[in-house]
Amino acid sequence: MKSDEKLIFESNLPNSAVQIWKKQGKKVIGTICCHVPEEIIHAAGLLPYRIRATGCTENSQGESWMTSFSCSFASSCLEFLLNGTYDFLDGVITSNGCMHAQRLYDNWRLNDMRSYRQSLTVPRKVSDSAISYYREELVQLKAALEKFSCVAITDEKLENSVKIYNETRRLIRKLYDLRRSESPVITGTQSQKLILAAMSMPKEQYNELLSNYLEEAKGREPLATYSARLMLIGSALDDPEFIKIIEDKGGLVVTDVQCFGSRYLWEPVEIDGDLMTSLATSYLKRPTCHRMVDQHQALFDFIIDMVKNHNVDGIIFEKMHNCDLWGGENLFLEERFKKANIPVLSLQRDEIMTNTMQVGVRVEAFIEMLQGVGI
């Protein structure tokens, strides 16, 4: 089996890597937000596993516990808890990322008796005081994980974990470089599957497989012709099938600003100095998460850099119904994109896709517009 085929297989939920990990008597900790520093979990000898709802086909149980105003991503994740999909987890850590993630965690606590549960309070600004506050949150997380795992998280162990994760970051950046090429050898659909695998298996194993894939990719033939180079922005998107709908219409998703994409392990963590401060700084400043209230300009600048560096022809906004964070952010950004003469298509979606045909038609029309057809 080729390296990418192995990684795509491990992107499934659950996967063989987790099953092997559990058979060895080791524990798995689910995380609900990108702001949970996985390096600390890893240093405790635990496996961080990003909670998602990929492949969920119905969420009647989840919806019965969530309000009608909750997004379907949160209720679908809860569905997987209730139907036993996440029985392999030994605990869960979340943050105050958005209202729906917090409600997911609250209902998780009510329905799950596993021994370890924790919620981090992450500041919504980037400042010296915010970093100092978040550092103390991470110190408490470290102490709680040491107690749960019966493992002392020494400076040496933490530094080793940071180095392993920095290697993952370096390799993911190389993956995005492949997509940036004028003649890409990987689709956006395939790329997201490779990143989902990063969230679902031990990083040491993942780094080896992704490194092998990147080497193998050098000899691959470029993709067949495509009609437009596109960028994805918006709500939590953990389903490669949504990207496939776009790419089946002739578009190629060459980059993104997504929690399940570029925002995951993008910039390296500084190893010099106090590691807890470095982690707090890195996770607060990671490519300008839209939950941050003082980073609108930085978010816009990051997107513009992505557009230029990846030769993007147009942006697709995908907003989950009832998404509180993107409810206003997309309007703010759309207006600025128009002033910058960047074409934008806004789509509404749910975790369980029921409007596949409508999405396909709108994407097709958008690509034709980008080509100068039908204007």
From TrEMBL:
A GO MF label: lyase activity
A Pfam cross-reference name: HGD-D
Top EC class for this record: lyase
Keywords linked to the UniProt accession: Iron, Iron-sulfur, Lyase, Metal-binding
Cofactor names: [4Fe-4S] cluster
EC number: 4.2.1.157
Name under which the protein is recorded: (R)-2-hydroxyisocaproyl-CoA dehydratase beta subunit
Family: Belongs to the FldB/FldC dehydratase alpha/beta subunit family.
Organism annotation: Sporomusa silvacetica DSM 10669
